[in-house]
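Long-time lurker, first post. I've been practising inverse folding by hand and with some scripts of my own, and I keep getting stuck on stretches where the structure tokens seem ambiguous. Below is the full token string for one chain I'm working on. Before anyone asks, I'm not after the true native sequence, just a reasonable design that respects the backbone. If someone could post their per-position residues I'd love to compare against what I wrote down in my notebook.
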């Protein structure tokens, strides 16, 4: 282990023993959700993992140090820090000098999870290609990170604010497999359907474990993206979303929001424009992803029946 990466003893032991561990990101509670809901969600996610028999590994940067397996005190410190940074992979080494707290994005979290030997990671929605990327070049670093960090990534699709079509094309270019979980449609984050289809569908945690194992056996470097739609009764009323995303992007232009601020700004705009309903959907889909990730981590740790791998 490098001297620049702290791994909690609980996570280190679980990884060493081959017990199930689920990585959780921190940008979702430092930048993605408003207070006080952010802390509740972060703590609830850990409880869901524990009650499913796995060890949670919330990942973030604590006073400059990339840390895998944050303590409750560290989660609270990051959640309440008014100056908390948002760290992608390229910000990780900067911490060595600035000593600041940071939430880690999916890109940085997948990198650190893999470095610590963790194979399953749950989040809400993936970063991807932004509207207008053909001139702004604004694509999330999540894309490239998922091409080279071999984790199972459970999400509810790319964030609704993105150019989903372009994002799916980029995953194809980067040879990152995308499967629907219990669905043939690519989910639309707050809603069950994005309007795009997935080419492959899996219906059980053991099947996810089987594909994961085949990826590793083939020496493929990328993540496995498991797209798990928000539960039907908790999705955002699709009609509420109508026009909101266009207005959110117009506000980005008008207020000249740039770089790392764009995604948190859009999510917050939508939350206000939907009277908080998008936040409820976001929390619901995250819970459901954490639950599925816990089952998948259990299936991977248990080993996959050979018959399943042979049949694939
Ligand atoms: N999903 C959520 N809420 C979030 C994010 C994802 O439900 O806040 C965060 C993730 O950390 C993701 C980041 O990696 O947004 C993407 O930001 P950007 O587009 O700047 O790469
Ligand atoms: Mn960006």
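-- Answer (accepted) --
I ran through it position by position. Result:
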């Amino acid at each position: 282990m490098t001297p620049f990466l702290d791994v909690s003893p609980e996570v280190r032991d679980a990884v060493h023993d081959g017990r199930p561990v689920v990585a959780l990101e921190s940008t979702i509670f430092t930048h993605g959700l408003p207070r006080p809901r952010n802390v509740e969600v972060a703590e609830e996610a850990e409880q869901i993992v524990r009650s499913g028999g796995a060890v949670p590994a919330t990942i973030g940067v604590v006073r400059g140090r990339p840390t895998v397996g944050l303590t409750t005190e560290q989660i609270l410190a990051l959640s309440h820090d008014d100056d908390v940074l948002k760290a992608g992979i390229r910000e990780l080494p900067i911490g060595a000098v600035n000593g600041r707290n940071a939430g880690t994005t999916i890109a940085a979290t997948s990198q650190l999870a893999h470095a610590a030997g963790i194979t399953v990671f749950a989040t809400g929605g993936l970063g991807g290609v932004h509207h207008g990327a053909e001139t702004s070049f604004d694509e999330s670093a999540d894309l490239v990170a998922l091409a080279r960090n071999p984790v199972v990534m459970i999400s509810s699709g790319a964030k609704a604010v993105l150019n989903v079509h372009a994002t799916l094309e980029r995953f194809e270019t980067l040879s990152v497999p995308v499967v629907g979980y219990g669905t043939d449609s690519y989910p639309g984050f707050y809603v069950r359907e994005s309007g795009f289809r997935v080419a492959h569908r899996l219906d059980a945690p053991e099947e996810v474990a089987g594909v994961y194992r085949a990826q590793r056996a083939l020496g493929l470097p990328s993540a496995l993206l498991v797209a798990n739609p928000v539960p039907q009764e908790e999705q955002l009323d699709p009609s509420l979303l109508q026009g909101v995303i266009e207005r959110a992007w117009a506000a980005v232009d008008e207020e000249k929001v740039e770089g790392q601020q764009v995604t948190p700004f859009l999510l917050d705009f939508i939350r206000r424009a939907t009277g908080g309903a998008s936040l409820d959907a976001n929390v619901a889909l995250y819970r459901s992803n954490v639950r599925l990730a816990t089952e998948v981590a259990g299936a991977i740790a248990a080993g996959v029946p050979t018959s399943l791998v042979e049949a694939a």
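A couple of notes from the structure itself: The pocket of manganese (II) ion (ligand 2) is lined by residues 138, 140, 262 (CB under 6 Å). The chain has a mean pLDDT of 95. Happy to go over any region you disagree with.
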